[in-house]
User: Fold this.
Amino acid sequence: TCLAKLGNRVLLVNPLSASQKNLSWNSFPELALNEPGLADMITEMRQAKRLDYANGLSDSWSADIVWLAIDTPVNDRDEADVEPLLAVAKSAALTHSKSVFAISSQIPLGFSDQVEKEYGLTVCYIPENLRLGKGIETFLRGDRTVIGANTQRVQDQVRSLLNGLHTDYFFCDLVTAEMVKHATNAFLASSISFANELARIGEHMGVDNQKVAQALKLDKRIGQGAYVAPGLGFAGGTLPRDLRILQKLGNQFKIPTHFVDSILSVNDSTSQALTRSVSEYVGGLSGKKVLILGYSYKADIDTLRRSPAIELGLQLVAQGAIVLGYDPMMNARDLSPLERIIQHRNHWNEIKEVPDAIVVMTARPQFSDVDWVQLSQQSSRQTSPTKQKKPLVLDTTMKMDSSVILGAGFSFKALWQPVKSANQS
Assistant:
Protein backbone atom coordinates (compact mmCIF):
# COMPACT_ATOMS: atom_id res chain seq x y z
CA THR A 1 0.00 0.00 0.00
CA CYS A 2 2.90 2.36 0.74
CA LEU A 3 4.44 1.57 -2.65
CA ALA A 4 1.15 2.63 -4.26
CA LYS A 5 1.22 5.80 -2.18
CA LEU A 6 4.59 6.58 -3.78
CA GLY A 7 2.88 6.54 -7.20
CA ASN A 8 3.49 2.97 -8.32
CA ARG A 9 0.86 0.59 -9.66
CA VAL A 10 0.80 -2.35 -7.26
CA LEU A 11 -0.88 -5.73 -7.46
CA LEU A 12 -1.19 -7.57 -4.15
CA VAL A 13 -0.91 -11.30 -4.80
CA ASN A 14 -2.12 -14.07 -2.55
CA PRO A 15 0.58 -16.77 -2.71
CA LEU A 16 -1.73 -19.29 -1.01
CA SER A 17 -4.22 -19.33 -3.85
CA ALA A 18 -4.12 -23.11 -4.19
CA SER A 19 -5.93 -23.43 -0.87
CA GLN A 20 -7.76 -20.06 -0.78
CA LYS A 21 -9.06 -19.47 -4.30
CA ASN A 22 -12.07 -17.38 -3.32
CA LEU A 23 -10.22 -14.53 -1.61
CA SER A 24 -11.21 -11.09 -2.83
CA TRP A 25 -11.15 -7.48 -1.72
CA ASN A 26 -14.32 -8.19 0.24
CA SER A 27 -12.42 -10.60 2.47
CA PHE A 28 -9.18 -8.62 2.51
CA PRO A 29 -9.82 -6.87 5.88
CA GLU A 30 -9.62 -10.31 7.50
CA LEU A 31 -6.01 -10.53 6.31
CA ALA A 32 -4.92 -7.07 7.44
CA LEU A 33 -3.00 -6.34 10.60
CA ASN A 34 -4.44 -3.99 13.17
CA GLU A 35 -2.15 -1.26 11.80
CA PRO A 36 -3.05 2.43 12.37
CA GLY A 37 -3.92 4.20 9.11
CA LEU A 38 -3.59 1.13 6.88
CA ALA A 39 -7.29 0.56 6.16
CA ASP A 40 -7.80 4.19 5.10
CA MET A 41 -4.73 4.15 2.87
CA ILE A 42 -5.88 0.92 1.22
CA THR A 43 -9.21 2.56 0.40
CA GLU A 44 -7.47 5.68 -0.91
CA MET A 45 -5.10 3.70 -3.17
CA ARG A 46 -7.89 1.50 -4.51
CA GLN A 47 -9.92 4.58 -5.44
CA ALA A 48 -6.83 6.00 -7.16
CA LYS A 49 -6.63 2.70 -9.12
CA ARG A 50 -3.02 2.15 -8.04
CA LEU A 51 -3.73 -0.89 -5.85
CA ASP A 52 -5.39 -4.14 -6.89
CA TYR A 53 -5.60 -7.71 -5.69
CA ALA A 54 -5.09 -11.10 -7.34
CA ASN A 55 -5.20 -14.75 -6.36
CA GLY A 56 -1.81 -16.26 -7.16
CA LEU A 57 1.07 -15.51 -9.49
CA SER A 58 0.15 -15.49 -13.18
CA ASP A 59 2.00 -14.77 -16.42
CA SER A 60 -1.13 -12.93 -17.64
CA TRP A 61 0.19 -9.73 -16.06
CA SER A 62 3.64 -8.20 -16.19
CA ALA A 63 5.72 -6.63 -13.44
CA ASP A 64 9.02 -4.81 -13.25
CA ILE A 65 9.49 -6.11 -9.75
CA VAL A 66 7.99 -9.06 -7.88
CA TRP A 67 8.35 -8.29 -4.16
CA LEU A 68 8.24 -11.15 -1.65
CA ALA A 69 6.86 -9.86 1.65
CA ILE A 70 5.24 -12.89 3.26
CA ASP A 71 6.06 -13.66 6.88
CA THR A 72 8.78 -16.23 7.52
CA PRO A 73 7.33 -18.95 9.76
CA VAL A 74 9.23 -19.93 12.88
CA ASN A 75 9.00 -22.94 15.14
CA ASP A 76 8.86 -22.95 18.94
CA ARG A 77 12.62 -22.30 19.03
CA ASP A 78 12.30 -19.25 16.74
CA GLU A 79 14.09 -21.08 13.93
CA ALA A 80 13.10 -19.85 10.48
CA ASP A 81 11.32 -22.09 7.98
CA VAL A 82 12.15 -20.82 4.48
CA GLU A 83 10.22 -23.47 2.52
CA PRO A 84 7.16 -21.21 1.92
CA LEU A 85 9.50 -18.50 0.60
CA LEU A 86 11.22 -20.94 -1.74
CA ALA A 87 7.83 -22.10 -3.01
CA VAL A 88 6.96 -18.52 -4.01
CA ALA A 89 10.38 -18.07 -5.63
CA LYS A 90 9.82 -21.25 -7.65
CA SER A 91 6.44 -19.96 -8.85
CA ALA A 92 7.91 -16.56 -9.72
CA ALA A 93 10.61 -18.25 -11.79
CA LEU A 94 7.88 -19.84 -13.93
CA THR A 95 5.77 -16.70 -14.40
CA HIS A 96 8.11 -13.69 -14.00
CA SER A 97 11.65 -14.86 -14.65
CA LYS A 98 12.59 -11.50 -16.23
CA SER A 99 11.37 -9.42 -13.28
CA VAL A 100 13.57 -8.36 -10.39
CA PHE A 101 12.70 -10.60 -7.44
CA ALA A 102 12.85 -8.35 -4.37
CA ILE A 103 12.75 -9.88 -0.90
CA SER A 104 11.91 -8.19 2.37
CA SER A 105 10.90 -11.31 4.32
CA GLN A 106 13.29 -12.30 7.10
CA ILE A 107 15.79 -14.75 5.63
CA PRO A 108 18.99 -16.50 6.74
CA LEU A 109 22.40 -15.49 5.46
CA GLY A 110 22.94 -16.85 1.94
CA PHE A 111 19.26 -17.27 1.06
CA SER A 112 19.27 -14.61 -1.70
CA ASP A 113 22.23 -16.19 -3.49
CA GLN A 114 20.52 -19.59 -3.17
CA VAL A 115 17.41 -18.24 -4.93
CA GLU A 116 19.48 -16.70 -7.73
CA LYS A 117 21.40 -19.93 -8.35
CA GLU A 118 18.53 -22.42 -7.98
CA TYR A 119 15.78 -20.51 -9.79
CA GLY A 120 17.67 -18.16 -12.10
CA LEU A 121 15.99 -15.07 -10.66
CA THR A 122 17.59 -11.65 -10.33
CA VAL A 123 17.31 -10.99 -6.60
CA CYS A 124 17.33 -7.80 -4.58
CA TYR A 125 17.20 -7.94 -0.78
CA ILE A 126 15.52 -5.01 1.01
CA PRO A 127 15.51 -5.85 4.73
CA GLU A 128 12.09 -5.26 6.26
CA ASN A 129 12.24 -2.33 8.66
CA LEU A 130 8.65 -2.15 9.89
CA ARG A 131 7.56 -1.86 13.50
CA LEU A 132 4.12 -3.17 14.41
CA GLY A 133 1.89 -0.22 15.23
CA LYS A 134 4.14 2.16 13.28
CA GLY A 135 4.40 0.29 9.99
CA ILE A 136 3.46 3.13 7.64
CA GLU A 137 5.70 5.65 9.37
CA THR A 138 8.74 3.38 9.45
CA PHE A 139 8.29 2.44 5.78
CA LEU A 140 7.81 5.95 4.41
CA ARG A 141 10.20 7.72 6.81
CA GLY A 142 12.74 5.13 7.88
CA ASP A 143 16.16 6.04 9.23
CA ARG A 144 17.70 4.18 6.32
CA THR A 145 16.67 1.81 3.56
CA VAL A 146 19.09 -0.95 2.62
CA ILE A 147 19.09 -2.08 -1.01
CA GLY A 148 21.15 -5.20 -1.53
CA ALA A 149 21.85 -6.44 -5.04
CA ASN A 150 24.85 -7.85 -6.89
CA THR A 151 24.65 -5.33 -9.75
CA GLN A 152 24.27 -1.56 -9.80
CA ARG A 153 21.58 -1.87 -12.49
CA VAL A 154 19.27 -3.70 -10.09
CA GLN A 155 20.12 -1.33 -7.23
CA ASP A 156 19.19 1.65 -9.43
CA GLN A 157 15.94 0.02 -10.61
CA VAL A 158 14.75 -0.63 -7.06
CA ARG A 159 15.87 2.83 -5.94
CA SER A 160 13.65 4.28 -8.68
CA LEU A 161 10.67 2.27 -7.40
CA LEU A 162 11.20 3.74 -3.93
CA ASN A 163 11.49 7.33 -5.10
CA GLY A 164 9.63 9.53 -2.63
CA LEU A 165 10.70 7.83 0.59
CA HIS A 166 12.08 10.16 3.26
CA THR A 167 15.12 8.03 4.04
CA ASP A 168 18.84 7.54 3.51
CA TYR A 169 19.67 4.78 1.02
CA PHE A 170 22.42 2.26 1.65
CA PHE A 171 23.62 0.10 -1.25
CA CYS A 172 25.52 -3.17 -0.96
CA ASP A 173 25.59 -6.73 -2.31
CA LEU A 174 23.06 -9.40 -1.35
CA VAL A 175 24.86 -11.25 1.41
CA THR A 176 26.01 -8.00 3.04
CA ALA A 177 22.41 -6.73 3.11
CA GLU A 178 21.36 -9.97 4.78
CA MET A 179 24.04 -9.56 7.44
CA VAL A 180 22.98 -5.91 8.00
CA LYS A 181 19.55 -7.21 9.00
CA HIS A 182 20.96 -9.88 11.33
CA ALA A 183 23.44 -7.41 12.83
CA THR A 184 20.78 -4.75 13.44
CA ASN A 185 18.44 -7.09 15.26
CA ALA A 186 21.25 -8.75 17.21
CA PHE A 187 22.50 -5.33 18.36
CA LEU A 188 19.02 -4.22 19.44
CA ALA A 189 18.49 -7.50 21.29
CA SER A 190 21.88 -7.22 23.00
CA SER A 191 21.06 -3.71 24.23
CA ILE A 192 17.77 -4.94 25.70
CA SER A 193 19.35 -7.91 27.49
CA PHE A 194 22.24 -5.73 28.72
CA ALA A 195 19.85 -3.19 30.26
CA ASN A 196 17.67 -5.87 31.85
CA GLU A 197 20.53 -7.78 33.43
CA LEU A 198 21.87 -4.57 35.01
CA ALA A 199 18.38 -3.60 36.17
CA ARG A 200 17.76 -6.92 37.91
CA ILE A 201 20.98 -6.41 39.89
CA GLY A 202 20.21 -2.77 40.59
CA GLU A 203 16.72 -3.59 41.86
CA HIS A 204 18.17 -5.26 44.95
CA MET A 205 20.36 -2.25 45.72
CA GLY A 206 17.65 0.41 45.37
CA VAL A 207 18.98 1.71 42.05
CA ASP A 208 16.65 3.92 40.00
CA ASN A 209 17.06 1.95 36.79
CA GLN A 210 15.09 4.42 34.68
CA LYS A 211 17.57 7.13 35.64
CA VAL A 212 20.42 4.86 34.63
CA ALA A 213 18.85 4.48 31.19
CA GLN A 214 18.39 8.25 30.87
CA ALA A 215 22.04 8.85 31.74
CA LEU A 216 23.23 6.28 29.20
CA LYS A 217 21.20 7.91 26.44
CA LEU A 218 22.87 11.26 27.13
CA ASP A 219 26.22 9.73 26.16
CA LYS A 220 26.73 10.51 22.47
CA ARG A 221 28.41 7.14 21.97
CA ILE A 222 25.11 5.48 22.94
CA GLY A 223 22.41 7.98 21.96
CA GLN A 224 18.77 8.87 22.52
CA GLY A 225 17.42 5.98 20.49
CA ALA A 226 19.36 3.28 22.32
CA TYR A 227 17.45 0.24 23.55
CA VAL A 228 18.90 0.52 27.06
CA ALA A 229 15.74 1.14 29.10
CA PRO A 230 14.96 -1.82 31.37
CA GLY A 231 11.82 -3.68 30.40
CA LEU A 232 10.37 -7.10 29.68
CA GLY A 233 12.93 -7.94 27.03
CA PHE A 234 12.21 -8.62 23.37
CA ALA A 235 9.22 -10.62 22.15
CA GLY A 236 7.51 -11.38 18.85
CA GLY A 237 9.49 -13.23 16.19
CA THR A 238 11.76 -10.58 14.67
CA LEU A 239 14.75 -10.34 17.01
CA PRO A 240 14.86 -13.96 18.20
CA ARG A 241 14.61 -15.24 14.64
CA ASP A 242 17.81 -13.44 13.60
CA LEU A 243 19.63 -14.54 16.74
CA ARG A 244 18.72 -18.18 16.06
CA ILE A 245 20.00 -17.81 12.48
CA LEU A 246 23.35 -16.53 13.79
CA GLN A 247 23.48 -19.39 16.31
CA LYS A 248 22.87 -21.90 13.52
CA LEU A 249 25.58 -20.38 11.34
CA GLY A 250 28.01 -20.44 14.24
CA ASN A 251 27.28 -24.11 14.78
CA GLN A 252 27.66 -24.77 11.05
CA PHE A 253 31.11 -23.15 10.93
CA LYS A 254 32.08 -24.43 14.41
CA ILE A 255 32.34 -20.88 15.76
CA PRO A 256 31.18 -20.37 19.38
CA THR A 257 28.34 -17.84 19.74
CA HIS A 258 28.82 -16.99 23.43
CA PHE A 259 27.55 -13.44 23.01
CA VAL A 260 24.39 -14.39 21.12
CA ASP A 261 23.75 -17.26 23.53
CA SER A 262 23.97 -14.87 26.48
CA ILE A 263 21.55 -12.37 24.90
CA LEU A 264 18.95 -15.11 24.51
CA SER A 265 19.60 -16.53 27.96
CA VAL A 266 18.98 -13.19 29.69
CA ASN A 267 15.84 -12.66 27.64
CA ASP A 268 14.50 -16.16 28.26
CA SER A 269 14.85 -15.69 32.03
CA THR A 270 12.50 -12.67 32.17
CA SER A 271 9.36 -14.60 33.12
CA GLN A 272 11.23 -16.46 35.88
CA ALA A 273 12.56 -13.17 37.25
CA LEU A 274 9.06 -11.61 37.21
CA THR A 275 7.57 -14.67 38.88
CA ARG A 276 10.21 -14.55 41.59
CA SER A 277 9.50 -10.86 42.14
CA VAL A 278 5.77 -11.51 42.67
CA SER A 279 6.39 -14.59 44.80
CA GLU A 280 8.75 -12.74 47.13
CA TYR A 281 6.13 -10.08 47.81
CA VAL A 282 3.11 -12.35 48.35
CA GLY A 283 5.03 -14.98 50.31
CA GLY A 284 4.88 -17.88 47.88
CA LEU A 285 2.49 -18.43 45.00
CA SER A 286 0.60 -21.58 45.95
CA GLY A 287 -3.11 -20.70 46.08
CA LYS A 288 -2.44 -17.00 45.48
CA LYS A 289 -4.42 -15.01 42.89
CA VAL A 290 -2.54 -12.97 40.31
CA LEU A 291 -4.28 -10.69 37.79
CA ILE A 292 -2.49 -10.06 34.49
CA LEU A 293 -3.49 -6.89 32.60
CA GLY A 294 -2.70 -7.06 28.87
CA TYR A 295 -1.53 -10.02 26.82
CA SER A 296 0.41 -8.62 23.84
CA TYR A 297 3.96 -7.33 24.06
CA LYS A 298 3.18 -3.87 22.65
CA ALA A 299 0.36 -1.44 23.39
CA ASP A 300 -0.85 -0.93 19.83
CA ILE A 301 -0.95 -4.53 18.59
CA ASP A 302 -3.02 -7.61 19.40
CA THR A 303 -0.64 -10.43 18.44
CA LEU A 304 0.07 -13.13 21.00
CA ARG A 305 3.26 -14.30 19.30
CA ARG A 306 5.86 -14.94 22.04
CA SER A 307 3.64 -13.10 24.49
CA PRO A 308 5.52 -12.33 27.75
CA ALA A 309 2.12 -12.34 29.52
CA ILE A 310 1.45 -15.94 28.49
CA GLU A 311 4.97 -16.98 29.46
CA LEU A 312 4.49 -15.30 32.85
CA GLY A 313 1.13 -17.04 33.24
CA LEU A 314 2.76 -20.42 32.60
CA GLN A 315 5.38 -19.73 35.27
CA LEU A 316 2.77 -18.59 37.81
CA VAL A 317 0.49 -21.57 37.21
CA ALA A 318 3.44 -23.95 37.49
CA GLN A 319 4.04 -22.59 41.00
CA GLY A 320 0.41 -23.03 42.05
CA ALA A 321 -0.99 -19.54 41.45
CA ILE A 322 -4.53 -18.86 40.19
CA VAL A 323 -4.09 -16.54 37.21
CA LEU A 324 -6.79 -14.13 36.09
CA GLY A 325 -6.53 -11.87 33.06
CA TYR A 326 -8.06 -8.86 31.37
CA ASP A 327 -7.24 -7.23 28.04
CA PRO A 328 -9.77 -4.90 26.38
CA MET A 329 -8.38 -5.63 22.89
CA MET A 330 -8.87 -9.36 23.18
CA ASN A 331 -12.63 -9.69 23.70
CA ALA A 332 -13.35 -10.69 20.11
CA ARG A 333 -10.17 -12.68 19.52
CA ASP A 334 -9.57 -16.38 19.62
CA LEU A 335 -7.91 -16.72 23.01
CA SER A 336 -7.03 -20.39 22.63
CA PRO A 337 -3.33 -19.77 23.48
CA LEU A 338 -4.54 -18.66 26.91
CA GLU A 339 -6.63 -21.73 27.67
CA ARG A 340 -5.61 -23.52 30.87
CA ILE A 341 -3.31 -20.61 31.72
CA ILE A 342 -5.32 -17.43 32.25
CA GLN A 343 -8.94 -17.16 33.39
CA HIS A 344 -9.93 -14.36 31.02
CA ARG A 345 -12.37 -11.61 32.03
CA ASN A 346 -14.13 -9.63 29.29
CA HIS A 347 -14.46 -6.43 31.31
CA TRP A 348 -12.84 -4.75 34.30
CA ASN A 349 -16.15 -4.94 36.19
CA GLU A 350 -16.10 -8.75 35.85
CA ILE A 351 -13.06 -8.91 38.13
CA LYS A 352 -14.80 -9.88 41.36
CA GLU A 353 -11.89 -11.89 42.75
CA VAL A 354 -9.45 -9.82 44.78
CA PRO A 355 -5.94 -10.63 43.59
CA ASP A 356 -2.85 -10.78 45.76
CA ALA A 357 -0.93 -9.16 42.94
CA ILE A 358 -1.73 -7.35 39.69
CA VAL A 359 0.84 -7.36 36.90
CA VAL A 360 0.41 -4.74 34.15
CA MET A 361 2.00 -6.35 31.09
CA THR A 362 0.78 -4.13 28.23
CA ALA A 363 0.50 -0.33 28.14
CA ARG A 364 -3.12 -0.27 26.97
CA PRO A 365 -4.49 3.29 27.38
CA GLN A 366 -7.65 1.82 28.95
CA PHE A 367 -5.65 0.73 31.99
CA SER A 368 -5.07 4.35 32.95
CA ASP A 369 -8.83 4.75 33.47
CA VAL A 370 -9.62 1.68 35.56
CA ASP A 371 -11.24 2.22 38.95
CA TRP A 372 -8.44 1.29 41.35
CA VAL A 373 -10.40 2.62 44.34
CA GLN A 374 -13.29 0.24 43.64
CA LEU A 375 -10.95 -2.74 43.47
CA SER A 376 -9.15 -1.61 46.60
CA GLN A 377 -12.45 -1.39 48.48
CA GLN A 378 -13.29 -4.93 47.40
CA SER A 379 -9.89 -5.94 48.70
CA SER A 380 -10.52 -4.28 52.07
CA ARG A 381 -13.82 -6.12 52.45
CA GLN A 382 -12.39 -9.51 51.56
CA THR A 383 -8.98 -9.34 53.21
CA SER A 384 -8.43 -11.49 56.26
CA PRO A 385 -7.68 -9.51 59.46
CA THR A 386 -4.44 -11.46 59.78
CA LYS A 387 -3.30 -10.46 56.33
CA GLN A 388 -0.94 -7.49 56.61
CA LYS A 389 0.15 -6.74 53.05
CA LYS A 390 -1.84 -4.72 50.56
CA PRO A 391 -2.21 -6.19 47.07
CA LEU A 392 0.77 -5.41 44.87
CA VAL A 393 0.52 -3.65 41.50
CA LEU A 394 3.62 -4.51 39.44
CA ASP A 395 3.89 -2.17 36.45
CA THR A 396 6.14 -3.62 33.74
CA THR A 397 5.21 -0.85 31.30
CA MET A 398 6.39 2.17 33.34
CA LYS A 399 3.25 3.95 32.08
CA MET A 400 0.94 3.70 35.09
CA ASP A 401 0.37 6.58 37.51
CA SER A 402 1.87 5.29 40.74
CA SER A 403 0.34 8.09 42.82
CA VAL A 404 -3.19 7.03 41.81
CA ILE A 405 -2.49 3.39 42.58
CA LEU A 406 -0.78 4.14 45.90
CA GLY A 407 -3.59 6.55 46.76
CA ALA A 408 -6.11 3.77 46.25
CA GLY A 409 -4.34 1.72 48.91
CA PHE A 410 -2.23 -0.68 46.85
CA SER A 411 1.48 -1.30 47.06
CA PHE A 412 3.28 -0.37 43.84
CA LYS A 413 6.36 -1.66 42.10
CA ALA A 414 7.77 -0.41 38.82
CA LEU A 415 9.63 -3.10 36.88
CA TRP A 416 13.02 -3.89 38.44
CA GLN A 417 12.48 -1.17 41.07
CA PRO A 418 11.87 -1.43 44.84
CA VAL A 419 8.31 -1.77 46.19
CA LYS A 420 6.50 1.35 47.42
CA SER A 421 3.73 1.00 49.98
CA ALA A 422 0.61 3.18 50.28
CA ASN A 423 2.08 5.18 53.17
CA GLN A 424 5.27 6.05 51.27
CA SER A 425 5.62 9.32 49.36
Q: What stands out?
A: The first strand starts at residue 10 and ends at 14. The chain is about 35% helix and 15% strand. The chain has a mean pLDDT of 89.
